[in-house]
Every structure is written in C-alpha cells, then in structure tokens.
Design brief:
Distance between the termini: 27 Å
Helix content: over 70%
Number of strands: 0
Largest sheet: none
Number of helices: 4
Strand content: under 5%
Amino acid sequence: MNAVIDAVQAALAAEHAAVYGYGVVGGHLTGSRQAEARQGYDAHRARRDDLMRTVADLGASPVTTAAGYELPFPVTDAASAVRLAVHVEERVAGAYGDVVRGTIGDLRRDATGAMRDAAVRAVRWRGGSVAFPGLAERG
C-alpha cells in the first residue's frame, strides 16, 4: 500500500507543480493560446483537488504545494511558455503512468484518464505526438 500512496503523492506533487507552471505559461500568452493555458490550469487544479481527497481516503496526509518552483528553463516569451506547457504535461503524464503501473480498479482507471488528458494537452501544445506519452523521462 505504501507504493500506491507514494505514486499517488508523486502525482499530486506533479499536479501542484502543473498549477504553478500554468500560471507562468498563461502570463506569457495571449488570445486562444492564453485560453488554452487557462483550460490546462483549471484541469490541473481539479485533478489536484481530486488527488488530495484520494490521498486522504488512502489514509495519508496529502503533500502540500511548495511556496515556489524552479522552472526547468527561463520562460521569457510565448515560445518558451509553450515549451514549459509541454514539459509540464509530459511530467504529469509520467507521474500518472507510475500510478497506472502500481494500481488496479477505480484508481487505475482515473490515473489512466489523467495520463491520457495530459498526453492530449502535450500534443496540442507541441503540435505533434510522441510514441509513448508519459514515458519520455524513462528513456
């Protein structure tokens, strides 16, 4: 059970970081891309809130959000904001991939949906797909 809790906590931590990341992304975009960033922000907030309840239901205290997060590269314009959105979605998909690998039942189904959603958002931001979404950092 500890491995399940650890995987769900890692997904929760990824969602916390995604919410932060989308705040940065949205600040550098305009028009339809900014609306897309807002949709991503809202989706990650909802998933984060769901995971907080899931962790509590598993009998653990949910990890909290950090006061700030170090970005993987400077975000100074629209192009780097889009790269950050791709990075965020790939990390989230990877975290949910770990939940999928380690669980069964409803938790696995929910994690599979979250991984799929992150992969779809990454494709939209990137403008193309990768062979195995959620596994990029494993290679």
